[in-house]
Design goal:
The chain is α/β, with parallel strands linked by helices. It is built from four helices and five strands. The protein has a single domain (2-109), classed as 2-Layer Sandwich (Transcription Regulator spoIIAA). Helix content is 41%, strand content 27%. A five-stranded mixed β-sheet has the order 1-2-3-4-5. Helix 2 (56-72) links the parallel strand 3 (43-50) and strand 4. Helix 1 packs parallel to helix 2.
């Protein structure tokens, strides 16, 4: 798994490449929380286009980041969900809790 961050205007884009599972979800959590808490990013876009699989620990990391973003008054946006990642969020009924966009361009213009 590889995680990179970059700026696009006021948005910080966190791009995750690889599966988010029990072994690497702590790294995803650390990066997202770091961007939110330390950089105080007003808008964080998690680009998950290259994530084909996400398990419950990965979902928990996203939920924790969402809670922190709301506590800090910033936005956490998910984009580029693969069918498998979307299905996990739909089955857990979290798809309606997150702001979700088809691609990064739509997330940036939101």
């Amino acid at each position: 798994m590889h995680i990179s961050t970059r700026q696009s205007g006021s948005a910080t884009i966190v791009e995750v490449n690889g599966d988010i599972d029990l072994y690497n979800s702590p790294e995803v959590r650390q990066v997202l929380l770091g961007v939110l808490r330390e950089k105080r990013a007003p808008r964080v876009i998690a680009n998950l286009a290259a994530v084909k699989y996400i398990d419950s620990s990965g979902v928990a990391s996203l939920v924790e980041a969402l809670k922190v973003s709301r506590d800090l008054g910033s936005r956490l946006i998910l984009c580029g969900l693969s069918p498998a990642a979307r299905e996990v969020l739909e089955l857990s009924r979290l798809i309606k809790v997150f702001e979700v966009f088809e691609n990064e361009a739509q997330a940036l213009s939101a």
